[in-house]
Amino acid sequence: MSTKKFSKVMLVTLICLAISHTVFAKGDKIKIATQSSPQCIMYATVSAQILEYLGYEASSVLIEGVAAYQLMEQGDVQSFPCAWLPAQQPAWDKYVTTRKTVAPLSLMTDECLYRLAVPKYVADQGVNSLEDLKKYADKFDKKIYTGPQGSGGAKLVDTTMEAYGLDKWQNMGIAFAALITEMHEKYKRKEWFVFSGWSPHWMNHVMELKYLDDPKLIWGKSSTIMNPVPANLEEKMPNVAKFLKQYKVSQGIANDWIYENAFEKREPSELAVEWIKNNIKIVDIWVTGVTDKSGKKSAFTAIRDALRAK
After folding, report:
1. What is the pTM of this model?
2. Residue 82 placed within a domain
């Protein structure tokens, strides 16, 4: 081959390598979906921070409703560590069970509660089951408060109203953060209200609640929090997928995060950095067998190096 032809081949090769590297770098950006509840924010923020320590460009993005599943299907979001079931069952069934474009990577937290609740002072007056709501309709002003319209919780409330003969009631859907703030204010005024509550959450520290019995099991026996990902994540980003698969949060840890973030008003990223530093042995379990982005360092070493550099 002549020198001139060899130079042309090398030039084309270098251009192709540059282009492929650019595309790969763009694809390395990791977006972790979260909803507006403090728990979801902290689950996403802590996982994004750990990935940053491993050398990835990672961030959490606020996405409500079923949009997180749609974006995972498109490959625009790599993780949603706050998929409450059965609250999000319709979206789960569509994207995970039927289409199989989203994969059920791991169980984040189990034995959670997500159902309609009333203050204990209301329960003491005879409201202990969803079947009791109709009898006290005027006391509740025929309103049920829940998350934003289109969310899994809002859809469950619609089903509940139909199943328990609450057809003239209103589904008052509002943002999750505003929901709890408003319910807390009502609680302090000793008002009657019913809303979709959940545990773990700081609301259970500041309000004494009764989670209503659900004889028809509209809300399920208990809730779980899953971490779904795009179906091809383990193939495209095996190192990231391994970490996310091992990222499991106990209710105790979740309660601490939620209380510090939502009640003590700690900034999420600041809280995440502090918690990782003070709980490195738990983080070690999450990153066992994981490396940094380059593959040259163990995750153990990469995270400690990053913390020392702070």
Report:
1. 0.72
2. yes
How far apart are alpha carbons 119 and 110 in whole angstroms?
24
Give 126-143 pLDDT, tens digit per residue.
999 999 999 999 999 999
Half-sphere exposure of residue 131: CA atoms within 13 angstroms, side-chain side: 5
Q: Is residue 2 part of a domain?
A: no
Over residues 134-188, the pLDDT tens digits come to 999 999 999 999 988 888 889 999 999 999 999 899 999 998 879 999 999 999 9
Residue with tokens 């309660």: 255
Whether residue 256 has pLDDT greater than 50: yes
Same domain, 205 and 126: yes
User: What does the pLDDT look like over 52-92, one tens digit per residue?
Assistant: 999 999 999 999 768 999 999 999 999 999 999 988 999 99
Cα(60)–Cα(49) distance, rounded to whole angstroms?
Answer: 9
Q: Are strands 30-34 and 58-62 parallel, antiparallel or unpaired?
A: parallel
Q: How many domains does the chain divide into?
A: 2
Instruction: Show which of 211, 232, 250 is a domain's final residue.
Output: 211
Q: Is residue 6 part of a domain?
A: no
Answer whether residue 218 is part of any domain: no
Domain that holds residue 238: 30-111+223-309
